[in-house]
Amino acid sequence: MASGVTVSDDCKRTYEEIKKDKKHRYVIFYIKDERQIDVEVVGARDEEYDKFLTDLQAGGAGECRYGLYDFEYMHQCQGTSESSKKQKLFLMSWCPDTAKVKKKMLYSR
Questions:
Q1: Of 79, 74, 89, 76, the residue nearest 24 (C-alpha)
Q2: Is 1 domain-assigned?
Q3: pTM
């Protein structure tokens, strides 16, 4: 197993496009050749959470992935009648029980 996993420039760029520019709804990352985290799928801004979950698991029962999702919701502060739109970024790790131990260890770092 590789001693260190790096992050590709494409990952960094896509992360910024989600966080700052709100260009995409989500991104799925994978570890390429046990050496570098790279972008696998980018979800359009109008994609739903169910599509994110489908893409996260698309590699199959033996594959692990990372997923970054930009969650939007309406929030009403207590004591007010106005709601405002809020956004939170969630980073998830998908490691199914059926994945090989080596893969799970690689993604657990």
A1: 89
A2: no
A3: 0.87
